[in-house]
Structure formats: C-alpha cells, structure tokens
Amino acid sequence: xxxxxxxxAGTSIxxxxxxxxxxxxxxxxxxxxxxxxxxRKGYKVIGIIDGFFFDRAAVGHREILAALEAGIKVVGxxxxxxxxxxxxxxxxxxxxxxxxxxxxxxxxESDDEVAVSTNPDTFEPISVPLVNMRxxxxxxxxxxxxSEEEHAFxxxxxxxxxxxxxxxxxxxxxxxxxxLIPEDKEKALLDFCIRQEVDIKKxxxxxxxxxxxxxxxxx
Length: 219
Fold this sequence. Notes:
The protein has two domains: 133 residues; 66 residues. The protein has a five-stranded parallel β-sheet with strand order 2-1-3-4-5, sandwiched between helices. 42% of the residues are buried. It is of the alpha/beta class. Helices cover 47% and strands 8% of the residues.
C-alpha cells in the first residue's frame, strides 16, 4: 500500500484539488460501515471531510472509536468530519477548522448546517451549505452592502430554507420579493454572494488535508 492515509471527500473539495495538497487514498464521502475495511488495511491516518447524512446511514461513532482504539489518528473538519470531531474530540479525534469550532462551542447544532444536495456521479454540491451562507452574509454586512436588519432577515430566511433548496439566487430574490431587500440592491448583492462567497467548508477541508500531512510527516 503506497498511501498511508485515506481521506473521505469530494463535496467540500474535489479529489483533484485535494491531491495537490496531500498524497492519499481519496474516497467518496463516507457512509456507515466503511471504516472497518480502512482499519483492516492498516492506514496510519483517516481524514473525514465529507459524508452522507439523511438518505443513507451516516458514519457511526463506534466506527470512529474503533479506528482510534486501533491506534489510527482520525482528523475531521469541513462537513461530516467537523460534526463527528465535535462529538468525539474528547476521545482523541482531531477536529480542525471553523465549522468544527462552531459545532464544538454550540454556535451551530444541526446536521442541516453543512448538508447539501450533490451530483450523484461526482458528489459535487448543487446547493449552498448554510455555513457558507452565514460567512458570506457576514462578509456582505462587513462591507456595508447589507444593513444589520437586512443581514438578520436574510440569515433567518437561509436557516428556514430546506437545505436542498438553498441558493444565493433564491435567497436574494426572496428577500427582494418580501420587500426587505431594496430592488436596487439585488444585482450587487447577488454578484457579491456568487463572486465573493466565503467557502468556509473548502477552507476547513484544506486544513484537514494539511493536518493529515503533518501527522504523516510526524509519524
């Protein structure tokens, strides 16, 4: 076995981009009962970025604990990895990134915060994760494109929207339709959200990869 690490990703960051940072066995988002094989194959480090949530059984806590008990270092961040790390960091799982910190500190709690609809063939996202919307709207507020009231309204609207339906186009247009975002601000706000999106999931995914790399180098 050439690679000493296995990384489950594909939604927060593509395997192609991830491969430029780390040499590893890159696999699609993790689901239940996949870690047993990884443990048997003798990998030194497991990186969990993306994973299945609602329509398929999510990776279980016991699976991750079994890997830790086998002496494998497990790093999580970005999406499913951030959620599981916030629940298992006291058992030795390593959590990295802002999304992990938000879950750990109780700023966010629901799986829905990082869930997205994906292309079934490529696992690329076709909706926008709520955590990215949070950071992008915060950036729009900081740039004074949004007022405090407008920011609060759009964030509440994003939270209320079912996760597969979340998009910046839908968010801005609904805001204008409801009369709480001025029509003359629509284009500038939509351009900002699309062109200057704060992709916090991807940033955290990069941190997972860099952390896995450091752990391998340390080993």
